Input
Amino acid sequence: MTVQNTQDVSMEDIVSLAKRRGFVYQGSDIYGGMAGLYDFGPYGTELLNNIKKSWWKANVQLKPNYVGLDSAMFKHPKVWEASGHVGGFSDPLAECKKCNTRIRVDKELGAVGVTADEKMSEEELNSLFDANRDKIKCPKCGAKDFGPVKAFNLLVKSNLGDFTGDDAEPVYLPGEACQGIYLNFKNIVDSVRVKVPFGVAQINKAFRNEISPRNFLFRTREFEQADTQFFVKPNENKLAYEQIKKDRWNWYLSLGIKEQNLRWKQHDNLVFYAKDAWDIEYNYPDLGFDEVEGIHDRTDYDLSQHSKFSGIDLSYTDPVTNEKYIPWVLETSMGLGRAFLAVMCDAYTVEELPDGGTRTVLKLNPEIAPIKYAVFPLLKNKPELVAKAKEVYNLLSQKYMCEFDDNGNIGKRYRRQDEIGTPNCVVIDFDTLKDDTVTVRDRDTTNQIRQKVSDL
Ligand code: GAP
Output
């Protein structure tokens, strides 16, 4: 039987492969780890970079009216007031009176079929929670005795530039990556030849004090977001929004993700800045369908807020009609960790072999596979084979990420490369020395063909 369905795999299988094969490690592992923090290992870094490159190509290189940006993570304290994060970016928490475990009230209510609206005040949430207290148990000790619901802000504070120690105006770490784009809207319009409608793309980090980081890379406290903000004329958002949604869906397919593992979800419970919001969801192991990317119609919320708080007019003047307006923003925001996880889960395959054994293969799209060619000398103890294999490795690595491996028998080397998703394994044998041909083994079919080195 071949296991290729994400719901036949557990997150534990993915976590285990990720660690064993150098994709992802628990953050600060040797100190016992830290919840919600992960480090990308050698192959994980390659895969992540390849996903970023593919995203950048689709969103900047191939889009003539999009430009890139890389803004500083630390921003003026007023930014997070203007954005609404200081006032409104919080999770409603309640503490178990018996064991002090904190629960996310909206999530716990949701689990028993009660919807808590994003826009509810603390008072309204407390009434809703009170009316449903008998249904909610502490996940740790089982008690049903909780304190009042309190809003817990997710922004992470730093003490950057605070030389007084009084923490008067904290400099926050970014709660979302997109703010850097709004802050540079005017700079970009004034310095680069862009005209509305145009987009700005950026990959940057975000930090959130998540109360319950969970499901591996799915909910972490530090993560990267790949964002585009498309600036349009007010009320000219509809067509562009539909096109952006289509483009984003197709990008996931271009990565090789199976369409049956993706679906759309429209929000009926909108966050404070959005007028319309759709998520692309992926069918993660254990979790089922959940958000990998949010696509938001933010209207003029962001540029208006920053105009107000900074005192700088962020309106745009149409160079042809002289019309002046605050552009509306259409946002796409993808969590790179979640996209990475979707890619790994989608590619994870366990195949039964004719001899009754199994092999685990990461059937990654070759374009994003960490290693494109693994080069093996047939025998480690034959210097002429090793020398020739090194020559082929040096040649191929001018163009591709390659790996040289002469460790263990060939079968073991194939298994290792299958698990990291290497599409091609090249074996150098005695015939190679005579006619410069090599055996190339295909990861997915395991078929082997003979090819000239110059044709690789
Ligand atoms: N600027 C809009 C924004 O930040 P969001 O829905 O809060 O919107 C966008 O986040 C994306 O960032 C999500 O679709 C998700 O992929 C990713 N994301 C959000 N919180 C995350 C977390 N705690 N861990 C990992 N990824 C997260």
